[in-house]
Amino acid sequence: MPHDNHDHDNHLDPMEARTRALETILTRKGLVDPAAIDAIIETYAEKVGPRNGAQVVARAWDDPAFAVWLASDATAAIASMGFTGRQGEHMKAVFNSDTVHNMVVCTLCSCYPWPVLGLPPVWYKSPAYRSRAVIEPRAVLAEFGVTLPASTCIRVWDSTAELRYLVIPQRPAHSDGLDRAALAGLVTRDSMIGTGLPLVLA
Amino acid sequence: MNGPHDLGGQMGFGPVRPEPDEPPFHTEWEGRALGLTLCVGALGLWKIDESRHARESLPPAVYYSASYFEIWLRALEALLLNHCLVSAQELAQGSAAPAVGPHPRRLEAATVPAVLAAGSDYQRPLGIAPRFRPGDRVRARNIHPRDHTRLPRYVRGHTGVIESTHGGFILPDTSAHQRGENPEHLYTVVFDGAALWGPDTEPGLTVSVDAWERYLEPA
Lengths: 202, 219
Known about the structure:
The structure holds two protein chains of two kinds.
Chain A: H1 14-28, H2 34-47, H3 50-62, H4 64-72, H5 74-79, E1 90-95, E2 100-105, H6 114-117, H7 122-125, H8 127-132, H9 137-143, E3 153-158, E4 163-168, H10 180-184, H11 189-193
Helix pairs in contact in A: 3-4
Chain B: H1 28-41, H2 48-56, H3 60-65, H4 68-82, H5 88-93, H6 112-118, E1 123-124, E2 137-140, E3 159-169, H7 172-175, E4 184-192, H8 193-197, E5 205-212, E6 216-218
Antiparallel strand pairs in B: 1-3, 2-3, 2-6, 3-4, 4-5
Helix pairs in contact in B: 1-4, 2-4
């Protein structure tokens, strides 16, 4: 019986309470429609995410003409696949090679290419990543389990304006006969930020 | 401003902690905070730059102890107060009276997909040629404005090379303060690791920033 008196179901996390209060106020003032918030959540929870970017990468691996277009006008090339909009208005694709590995950060806030990758993960927005990516990217990569040859140059792109960057990782070895869907399955989110590599075929 | 947000090259924040299979939202309120921010933004009362400035203007102790969605929500409260859309009393009480009809530009659920898929074009045509060309050596100005800027401290005073030009883009430094778009040429500028970090650089490192013309001078 003593343990039945807990009332934590009635406790709101302080941020939960604060957010609910603001939503109540703004709804009463006619500034916000709660159903629009639902629609936004649904978009980024279920529709827009890194599988979009994986399709772009797989096509770049599989279609040399598309790769050329992607390199010269990423915004248009990506839009042709239906991925457009907020925080992806001005896209640039940066291609890894045997000699250069690209890595993306936003040291000043959390800029990230939403239409192709969805919302950024917590670590991408963290002070640890934002502070260290530009001064010790190899040490950061090691925390992701990635070790690059000393001879590989690392290029870090700090997203300080409205350009949004998508890393095109190198196509994995032994992936020759795979169709585009199977190729997309090898593309991890982190490989498109530059903190990871595509999956390796067994 | 030299605020808590300007993190490049700072130390002491510990390891990066990737989370396997991370969900888009860890709690329900995070999604509501995102939605509130986007819905109020859609009213068109301020630009994204002003939102960023509200976030970086949070007290450093708050900024560093808050999750990013908490930063967004606190900044949204500050913007609403600054623009007299809510009162401190309303925020404290969590209520507003009386209820009023919808704002003419209120974002409706049915238009959310189209609005998100459209985004905002930040590029603006410019009638003047860019001052710098690819290959030019430039120095990031040693400036310390008290208000919003997108030139991070770790490049100020250092010399890099123009890699590409992107045409005219809305200038955040004025857009954040309701002082107009004032578009300027935007450049990608590449810095050698050794130029930024001296002998403490990692080998083979280059770092680029996207910089508006006023941030740069010939070197």
